[in-house]
Each structure stands twice: as C-alpha cells, then as structure tokens.
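Final paragraph of the annual report: two paired records, presented back to back.
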Amino acid sequence: MHLDQSPGKGDNISENRFLTYCWLNIGFRCGDASHLAPSTWLGHIPPLSYPGQALAVALYEIGGIRSCEIGTVMFGRQPDGSEKEAAMDLVRLAMPRRTYTQSHADYIIEVFEELNAIKSSLKGFKIVKEASLLRHFTCHFEKCDLA
C-alpha cells in the first residue's frame, strides 16, 4: 500500500495512517504512527530489560531512525531506589508535519520489516550508570547477555 492509495494523500494524517496500517500488518501495537508499544512485539525481552530501549537502539542501528523510549527507563525508578515496570512502555518517533514523503514512509516500513525478521535476536538492556534525577536523559546502557 502506498500513500497514493489513501484518501488525502500527502498530508501528515495520511502518512500516519499509512504507517499505522503497515505496523499493524506486522503485528505491532500502536496508538498512532508516532507512538509504538514494543512490549508485546518484543515479548521475549522482560519489562525491566527495557524493550522500548531495545527497539529505539535497533531502529537507529539498522536504519538511522531516531526515536525515544517513553516507559520504564523514564518512569521506572521508584523513590526508594527500586525499579518497577512502567504502566505503559512506548517508543516515540518524530513525525514532522509536511516533511515526510512517501519515500520516507516506505523507508520506515522497510526498516521495520527488517527488524521484524530479526526481532527474536534483539536483546534487552541494563542501566550501568544513571543520575539520581531525570536518568533517562543521561543514563548509560549495556546489552544484556540474555533477552
């Protein structure tokens, strides 16, 4: 499917619908085309091994696509120092208005199709260094040996 097959082609809403349609077809849960829920798609990675971070890193490594984890890395650290799974684990892609073209959308889908083929090999992460406040901005990660 391409944008030219969608009503309202060329606008940001159509691009988001197109991406959402394609992601749903490879089994990805998403609320809209800029917020993805990786925890089910990467179900082999436990919540405290940060599946959202694993997806964000893989998107950048494989396709140069920048994204941001909004989930347990951002909200998991409790006041007593313990770690708790966030209520929602999301990965956000920037979808600038009037900037993405059909070829951008096609490329994003190609990267996700490549990720879909290797998703079982993706590994989780552990935090090895973090600030006491706002850790998601500056924390350091290492890949886990196991998923």
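The closing record of the year follows.
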Amino acid sequence: MSAPSREEIEQQVQEDLMRLDAYRNQLSQMIQQHQMLAASRADHLRAREALHGLEAARDDADVLLPLGGEAYIHGRPDRSGPVFLGIGAGYVAELDRPRAAERLAERTKQIETAARDLEAQILQVEERMTILRRRVESLDARSAGEPAQGDVGRH
C-alpha cells in the first residue's frame, strides 16, 4: 500500500479543519446553553431563598417588590397568600407556599441534572476536538515531509 500523496494529505487536513470548525461552533452553542442553565439555576435559588426569607419576616416588614426593568415599590409580605409561579409561555399557576417551594426545588434539580448532562457532552466535544487537532498536526507534519509522531521506519 502506497503512502498518500501530498494532495490527498492536504485534502484530509482541509476536511479535518472543517470538522474542527463545526465542533468549535457546537461547543460555543453548548457553552451558551450552559450559561443559560446556570442563570436559570441561580434565579430559582434566589426565588426559593426569597420565599423562605418572607416566611421569616416580621408582619410589619417593609420589602421592595420588583416591577421589572430594575424598578421597585415598597410593600408588605402576605405570608398567607398564594405564590404565582411561571409555568411557561407567559402563564402562571397560583400555588400555596409549600407547594411553590417544592416546585422550585424540583425545577432546580432538573436544571442541575441538565447542566451535568451538558457538561458531559461538552467534555466529549472537547475530546473529539483534541483528537482532531492532533491528527491535523500529524497530517500537516507529514505533508511537510517531517516524520509524524508514531511513524516507524522513517529516518
């Protein structure tokens, strides 16, 4: 079996570089997804902490209620009132406080599981990229006439 020609090696390098670029794009998207999951997890944890904090607040406590757009008003917590929890697509569900706290905890666990799964996928893509980089370097060295790592019998 004859050694591949310089043109064949260069073609393989170009194909591998395109794959490497596709992996970079995939990795970038996965990192963005992970950042979104981390932000969502932090948001859920803050909501749980705020709910627990309101339970411990005095009856005459004055709290800042967010309106959105970094605007707030003063208000007093109603410990007996329901919690309105977003369920998606702009809809909210009215839940009693214990159920709302439980639901927030469930969501936090789901987010953490999704983040761990995504981290494992990120590691797999990074491993593929490392293997591909080494292969490109080896092919590049071969096309330049240098012995590639692992080549036996060349001097």
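The domain at 6-142 is CATH 1.10.287.370 (Helix Hairpins). This concludes the annual technical report; the extension proposal builds directly on these records.
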